[in-house]
Design brief:
- The protein has about 450 residues and is of the alpha/beta class.
- The protein folds into 2 domains: about 160 residues, Aspartate Aminotransferase, domain 1 (Alpha-Beta Complex), CATH 3.90.1150.10; about 260 residues, Type I PLP-dependent aspartate aminotransferase-like (Major domain) (Aspartate Aminotransferase, domain 2), CATH 3.40.640.10.
- Helix content is about 35%, strand content about 15%.
- The strands form 3 sheets. It has a 7-stranded mixed β-sheet, with helices on both faces.
- α4 packs across α10.
- The structure holds ligand PLZ.
- The site of ligand PLZ has 16 residues, from α5.
Length: about 450
């Protein structure tokens, strides 16, 4: 890996009790004023963060294997990003692109049009959050096709706004009692190789979904198919080879807009700029957020020029979309991604993680709790099952998953879980993490998995 300069010492260190007294005090203040509906998975309060390290207000240093849910791919204080933000903030913090435009918005659009898959004419619009990008992709697909239906998948996650809740599959904690939900959303089966009843090729899993769409909606009523090329919150589910290309080809034949939600999988996370590229899929519209902003809130949709330009002037926008500070941060983050070949680093992370977890699964044997190891690049996961059921009944082991995440945290490693059934440990390290720190984090994780078994 290329040399990366870090500001903070890249070393895990837990001092005394955990959480420390200052975090405990802050948590008490928080409980009195912050709504209980917002939960935090880690009970410590952050003081600083850089590279693969997060330090807390009590002086503890944690290895970050979550990147704030796949956001800080370039680290939480990348020098290019910090410098660009400092420079921009001294000039103007906001003017509103819909009132008085500025260059950085245009420059981000130029980058995204060049980086997203496909060499066709493209157009870009910038927003603030992933959910907002998804909402707008749906707006464009509906307007451009004159159709209403949107197809989403089992295990999908697309956000927490009303339309994106409707698109998200899982009721708890995202949807339960928050309805009624937006209409004209249809859900079809995903390709989930580990949990198919019998081995199902990608093409056949796609045909299963397509047949349902044709029977239950009718191809000519479908505006768009919305899919995460690798599902995130749903469990880092990598569909079987051929699934995505078959869906995309069907969409093309039927005038259906193929929307890839790359909010979590995009921007070097999987070892390519976009996860769609692993199978040569060229989406009609790509939604982006998280890694795109180098930690600042920025999201985008980039799509075929004919679709995007079908919208009447003034039909898309928002006060803050493409905020100048966020745009400056994004351009700097993209520069860092190129300078340090973060795609290459993501692929290296995949090699290291896969080797470690595969060795652990072998060591544990058939009696172990590792059901599946999957993912691409620095978006890797372990699905946990009850002892001895990995190749038979594959019984969900959410208790072990929780225990492992808690044990990692106690030892100074921030690790996230996910999955429809809450039984997946996911690894989303900053792509700039050092090999040494990643290896230390994996040592802790492997030990926690052994103990939980
Ligand atoms: N699409 C694929 O992963 C956000 C959500 C965490 P926002 N994922 C993390 C949580 O519990 O809220 C996400 C995603 C995909 C859309 C979104 C939504 O992005 O920026 O959170 O709105």
């Amino acid at each position: 890996m290329t040399d990366i300069q870090y500001r903070l010492a890249q070393k895990r260190q837990i001092l005394g009790t955990f959480p420390g007294p200052k975090s405990v005090e802050l948590d008490a203040r928080r409980k009195a004023v912050v709504a209980g509906g917002v939960a935090s998975s880690v009970p410590v309060y952050v003081a600083d963060a850089d590279g693969g390290i997060i330090t807390d207000v009590d002086g503890n240093s944690f290895i970050d294997l979550g990147s704030g849910i796949a956001v800080t791919s370039v680290g939480a204080s990348d020098s290019n990003v910090v410098e660009a933000v400092r420079e921009q903030v001294g000039h103007f913090t906001h003017t509103c692109f819909m009132v008085t435009p500025y260059e950085s918005y245009v420059a981000v659009a130029e980058e995204l049009n060049a980086l997203t898959p496909g060499t066709h004419q493209k157009r870009t619009v910038l927003f603030n959050s992933g959910a907002e990008a998804v909402e707008n992709a749906v707006k464009v697909a509906r307007l451009a096709t004159g159709r209403d239906a949107i197809v989403a998948f089992d295990h999908a996650y697309h956000g927490r706004t009303n339309l994106t809740m409707a698109l998200t599959a899982k009721a708890m904690p995202y949807k339960r009692n928050f309805g009624p939900f937006a209409p004209e959303i249809y859900r079809v089966p995903m390709s989930y190789p580990y949990r198919e009843e019998s081995e199902l090729k990608g093409q056949d899993a796609a045909r299963r979904a397509i047949s349902m769409i044709e029977k239950q909606i009718g191809a000519d009523a479908v505006a768009g198919i919305l899919i995460e090329p690798i599902q995130g919150e749903g469990g880092f589910i990598v569909p079987a080879d051929g699934f995505l290309p078959t869906l995309a080809a069907w969409a093309k034949e039927n005038g259906v807009v193929f929307i890839a939600d790359e909010v979590q999988s995009g921007f070097c996370r999987t070892g390519e700029w976009f996860a769609s590229e692993h199978e040569g899929v060229v989406p009609d519209i790509v939604t982006m957020a998280k890694g795109i902003g180098g930690g600042l809130p920025l999201s985008a949709i980039t799509g075929r020029a004919d679709l995007m330009d079908a919208v009447h002037p003034g039909g898309l926008g928002g006060t803050y979309g493409g905020n100048p500070i966020a745009c400056a941060a994004s351009l700097a983050a993209i520069k860092t991604m190129k300078e340090h070949d973060l795609n290459g680093r993501a692929r290296n992370i995949e090699r290291i993680v896969t080797a470690r977890l595969t060795a652990l699964a072998e060591e544990m044997g058939d009696a172990g709790i590792i059901g599946d190891i999957r993912g691409r690049g620095a978006m890797m996961a372990v699905e946990l099952v009850k002892p001895g059921t990995a190749n038979t009944t594959k019984e969900i082991n959410a208790e072990a998953t929780k225990a492992i995440a808690a044990a990692c945290l106690q030892a100074g490693v921030v690790i996230l879980t996910c999955g429809t059934y809450g039984n997946v440990i996911r690894l989303l390290p900053p792509l700039v993490i050092s090999e040494e720190l990643l290896t230390d984090g994996l040592d802790v994780l492997c030990e926690a998995i052994r103990k939980a078994a």
